[in-house]
Amino acid sequence: MKKPLYLIFFLLMTNSICGQLTKGHWLIGGSGRFYSYKNEYSTSSFISNGKYTQIDLSPIVGYFIADKFVLGLKSTISSIKGDFTVVGGVGNGGSSSQRHLFGAFGRYYFLEEAKQTNLLIEASYQAGIIRGLNNKGNLNNFSISAGPVIYFNPSVGIEFLLGYVTNSEKYTSQVLSENKNSFQFSIGLQVYLIKQ
Fold first, then answer.
1. Which are the contacts of 174, defined by CB distance < 8 A and separation ≥ 6?
2. Can you give the residue range of the structural domain that contains 77?
3. For residue 150, which of 105, 193, 120 has the smallest C-alpha distance?
4. Number of domains in the chain
């Protein structure tokens, strides 16, 4: 447990890894998101209302192909848990599922490199699989987010992003498709690296 804390402390205190937004630098990090939402599901025979919580972890790795512009790979692991009630008192229950996504992202920083804070915009597209007790399927995810990043030093920054995400889900265990659109808030920690 102490090793990750030492690594974080080292990254926050070191200035030997220089640069942030210059062509040729690497971006490594990730973010976490929390959702709480209500969902109504209906078929020809019943309607159910549910309340769900979702936690996402998204590691990224990217490369600055130009000053202030990075392209890279993004993975997301999601865990969703919830309870639902069938309208009319027919029944209720709970559900749990995991989602594993992989795709690409691009981001652009608006301010100059020398600033302690910066503003960024990020867009990403991912595809993946859904695994749960009673459901399996595929999904596609597109998101766009923007917000500030605050740098602890020239190499490490924390970001606060607000954005919009759209999901398209198709389940193979049932003849069912779902489209979800929602707003999201994420907090991320990014490390900017260059080989010296």
1. 135
2. 2-193
3. 120
4. 1
CB 21 within 8 A of CB 115: no
Which whole number is the average pLDDT over 100-121? 92
Nearest to 70 by CA among 124, 151, 143, 126: 124
The Cα-based distances of 27 to 71, 93, 132, 135, 195 in angstroms read: 9, 43, 33, 35, 12
- Region for residue 17 given its phi and psi (left: phi exceeds 0; alpha: psi -120 to 50; beta: otherwise): beta
Per-residue pLDDT at 174? 64
- What letter represents residue 20's amino acid? Q
**Least confident span in 3-17, 115-129, 160-174:** 3-17
% of the chain at pLDDT higher than 70 = 80
> pTM for this one?
0.77
Phi, psi angle pair for 147, to nearest 5°: 165, -175
| Higher-pLDDT residue of 189, 51 | 189
Alpha helices in 70-194 (DSSP H): none
| Residue 23 to residue 164: CA distance in whole angstroms | 28
Domain containing residue 157: CATH number: 2.40.160.20
How far apart CA 144 and CA 126 sit, in angstroms, is: 12
